[in-house]
Amino acid sequence: QLGLKTETFGHFVHFEEEVASTQKIALKLAYEGAKEGTLVISELQTAGRGRMGRKWFSPKGTGIWMSLILRPPIPPQKAPQLTLLTAVAICQAIQQVTGIVPDIKWPNDILLNGKKCVGILTELQADPDRVHSVIIGIGVNVNQTVEQFPEDIRTIATSLAIEKGERIKRARLVQEILLQLEKLYHQYLQHGFRPIKLLWEGYAVSIGKKITARTLNGSIKGTALGITDEGLLMLEDEDKHIHYIHSADIQL
Ligand code: BTN
Questions:
Q1: ipTM of the complex model
Q2: What Enzyme Commission number does this protein have (predicted)?
Q3: Can you give the pTM of this predicted structure?
Q4: Which one of 120, 148, 154, 227 counts the least CB within 10 Å of its CB?
Q5: CATH for 13-203?
């Protein structure tokens, strides 16, 4: 019923009306051997997970809450590349469906007018030298009105409908996200991360700017120089030391 145009992505779909988290289900399915391209999607998440231990607000029927299982033949250090790849694919899909060009804030927030509209959470099952599966969790705020966001996040969160001024068909956007994701993923497996990195830089807002990176171990202030070939953020602090950052929140 999603009308997919992909070769493999989304050809096994686990649809549920209500789940705690699609991410949790996808991790379990991956562990049990589910094929690459398996998609878990739900109308409502009661315990949607965000990055850095946060919650992801996932009310019924207004957004896209889904997790995709990939099995790329890569070592675990390269997994952050897939997060960046996913962000590019989603930007392309949003552009295609709504005409709006989003911004990416490293590593994986997608912003419209400076407010977050999409979150991506990548989780791994891996040995030190080989990835078994990567679970790509995607949350897109599609049709929420301002009032439907909890008050404490209204100044930082938005939906496509708010920015576009009209409702958007979720199935159409799911199709397009999976299509763009599959295309980029094949390109990535054939040609590596370089071409994806260039596309990513085209959408990125934080590069070249003074930012504060809040990591789990404290904050670092400096200039965002760019990303490495692995997908880490290079941040030059006031003493000209370069920090390579795996995971953080960025403030512009
Ligand atoms: C972030 O913190 O920005 C990442 C949010 C990721 C949310 C998605 S919604 C589908 C999938 N299931 C979850 O529990 N989380 C991800």
A1: 0.99
A2: 6.3.4.15
A3: 0.94
A4: 154
A5: 3.30.930.10
